[in-house]
Amino acid sequence: MQRKTFTCRLLAACALSFALPLLAQAQATKLTLGHGAAPGNPRHEASVKFAEVLKAKTAGRIEVQVAPSAQLGDDAAMVTALRTGALDMSANSQGALSAAVPEYAAYGMPFLFSTPAQAFKLLDGPLGQELAQKTADKGMVVLGYWDNGIRHMSNSKRPITKVEDMKGLKMRTPPDAVLVDIMQALGADAQQIKFAELYVALQQGVVDGQENPLVNIHASKLYEVQKHLALTSHMFQMTPFLMSKRSWDRLSEADRKAVQEAALEATALQRKMSQEADDKLLAELKAKGVQVTTVDKAAFAKATAAVDAKWLATPIGPYVKKVIAAAR
């Protein structure tokens, strides 16, 4: 009888030893984080950092797979996927998100910020908290506001120094209504093209030029097909770091805390990398044969003043007014 009891206990212990790893594996949470930037871009490097920190903080219980370069669709498609719960996380774009949460457009008013730091003073305060609440109402949780830089213009036709140089240029824009307004105000022809298709569109002359922060121009090698770069500083854009509310609601309180802590570290890294990149990339672009010009910003700002007025008259006008007042 004792031998039989011992044998049963031994078998039970063996079964448990096999079951425990399977149980732990069943309890593991796997999340997918999609974004549209290329590897090497601060957006990608910060996403990878987030995944590493979160895995360490949860002892491997939460694993994040990072999918760069629009592997899961463009930014607009990923916003839709976040809202439905088909995608867990995304380091997205201000323009695409403003289609779902129009208030994001407020931060893209022309010539509103001369440095990203000025924008983050607002985003890290009450105005950013208000924006996060509006985002939550649309099914997405803000984990951080990342830097997508101050944007500049490039083209293959001619140097740009004055507003008149913009007339007739076919300029690519992302799906951002404010950017379209800016281009039209400057006399350019705005055409929306997915970022993943931009290099080929520039190479084949589908469009004459584009606008992006220096880090995007460099990481995606747009300088190979664009030899004129104008430091217009016409717009700031953020990269909202988001989680689907459906994915968020499935996490325990402890795991939510770990996600927030990892996001805080990733946000600090992303902003730091973006700033450092801007400081060195201009010299690198010049070394690659890019001709760099400066513009009459006062004239450009005057030409785009009607964009502010247009957006102040929209339903998000009260929020736009608060952002402009705080910035200026």
What is the count of helical runs? 14
Q: Terminal Cα separation, in Å?
A: 87 Å
Count up the domains: 1
Would you list the SSEs in sequence order as H and E? HEHEHEHHHEEHEHEHEHHEHHH
Assigned CATH architecture: 3-Layer(aba) Sandwich
* Approximate strand percentage: 15-25%
Give the fraction of residues assigned to helices: 40-55%
Biggest sheet, in brief? 9 strands, mixed
The fourth-level CATH homologous superfamily is Bacterial extracellular solute-binding protein, family 7
Main CATH class: Alpha Beta
- Cα radius of gyration in angstroms: 23 Å
CATH topology: D-Maltodextrin-Binding Protein, domain 2
Descriptive report:
This protein has 328 residues and is α/β, with parallel strands linked by helices. It has one domain (29-327): D-Maltodextrin-Binding Protein, domain 2. It has 14 helices and nine strands. The longest helix has 35 residues, at 253-287. It starts with a helix and ends with a helix. Mean pLDDT is 92; it is low at 13-17 and 19-26.
In a few lines, what is going on in this structure?
With 328 residues, the protein is of the alpha/beta class.
Q: Helices, strands, pairings?
A:
Blueprint lengths: L1 H26 L1 E7 L6 H16 L4 E6 L7 H10 L4 E3 L2 H5 L17 H8 L2 H11 L3 E16 L14 E4 L3 H9 L3 E4 L5 H6 L5 E4 L1 H6 L8 E17 H5 L3 H35 L3 E4 L2 H7 L1 H8 L4 H11 L1
Parallel strand pairs: 1-2, 1-3, 5-6, 5-7, 8-9
Antiparallel strand pairs: 3-8, 4-7, 4-8
Helix pairs in contact: 2-11
